[in-house]
């Protein structure tokens, strides 16, 4: 039973200065966090929110974990191979409203020419005016992926063959604002 979240129908552009696309991965006995600094995306909202679409393109060379050497390694062929595979993309294939303001956005995530279907648990944070006369929406979404399924399988054994330095599970967290286009 849908409670139909109301969003103004139209084309929305993701505002990079008010959006963060981040990730978390297990490293030895802790977790490393990072984000992507350069990306663009569009949300096309329909009167029936479940008929809306989302597309996002992320510049893999813009990865930032706060450590220059690690970031350079992530851009290398061991991980993203950003020179040959400069973009990670997401294109929605369906949206299901679970409860008022809570959705599952299904879509195709492509990294290193490997495309897999993923589901993002998404929360609609609201819609409202901004000080510049525009209209904005806020969303928060998350998912987990296996980096190995996308051909990102570099690792280093630790304490014998039963333990690895880097976890396979990557948690992706997105907090986004988008601006309605005139």
From TrEMBL:
- PANTHER family annotated for this entry? PROTEIN YCEI (PTHR34406:SF1)
Q: Which family does it belong to?
A: Belongs to the UPF0312 family.
Read off the lineage from the record. Bacteria, Bacillati, Actinomycetota, Actinomycetes, Propionibacteriales
Which stretches make up the Lipid/polyisoprenoid-binding YceI-like domain?
Answer: 11-179
SMART domains xref list: YceI
This protein's species is Aeromicrobium fastidiosum
Name recorded for this polypeptide: YceI family protein
Task: List, alphabetically, the Pfam families matched.
Answer: YceI
